[in-house]
Design a protein that fits this description.
By secondary structure, this protein is α/β, with parallel strands linked by helices. The protein is built from nine helices and seven strands; from the N terminus they run αβααααβαβαββββαα. The chain has a seven-stranded mixed β-sheet with strand order 4-3-2-1-5-6-7. The protein is globular and about 45 Å long.
Length: 181
């Protein structure tokens, strides 16, 4: 129906982020920010490229080597609980992850993700399996599992959030527009 997701690639901040394409990498419920990036690293450096080499390594040691640019982190409930530091969504974005798709998010993580330009999609992830090819439409609010030929409804992001993501995050959006638009 939508063709090969891998051929479509993933736009970068400043491009049109309405549709995203990639493979699913499954995680469970309650993935906290220390699982996303361990505290033993985040106090040593602020270099996101260096930190991204350690993304998710406490719960999946080879994740950084397995994931390709544009792929998705797919999780259960309460993704991103724990610390309010922005390093967690920043390191996911720096690792090239196209978006995080989860049943629910910790509020501060969700807000920080949008602020740094990392798309977050809330939906029922129970049917999505490891390695499934996915296409996500942020504005219309759906995740299409190409592998299974099923469409999973998601909570659509408000237009202003899509604009913030397209601009590369809140700081870039404010610079570009001189405020909220």
């Amino acid at each position: 129906m939508f063709g090969d997701c891998r051929q479509a690639g993933r736009p970068q901040g400043g491009d049109d982020l309405k549709r995203l394409y990639g493979r699913a990498f499954r995680f469970g419920d309650n993935v906290n920010t220390d699982y996303i990036i361990s505290g033993k690293y985040k106090f040593k450096t602020l270099d996101m490229d260096e930190l991204s080499k350690h993304v998710m390594e406490d719960i999946r040691p080879d994740f950084y080597q397995e994931v390709e640019k544009g792929d998705f982190v797919v999780a259960g409930e309460n993704f991103g609980s724990g610390s309010s530091r922005e390093q967690a969504p920043l390191v996911i974005k720096a690792a090239g992850i196209g978006a995080v798709i989860a049943g629910s998010f910790a509020r501060i993580f969700f807000r920080n993700a949008i602020n740094v330009g990392l798309p977050v999609i809330e939906c029922d992830t129970s049917q999505i399996e490891e390695g499934d090819e996915l296409q996500v439409d942020l504005e219309r609010g759906w995740v299409y599992d190409v592998t299974k030929d099923i469409r999973v409804p998601s909570t659509p992001l408000p237009a202003v959030m899509v604009r913030i993501l397209n601009d590369g995050g809140l700081a870039e959006h404010l610079k570009k527009h001189g405020g909220f638009s």
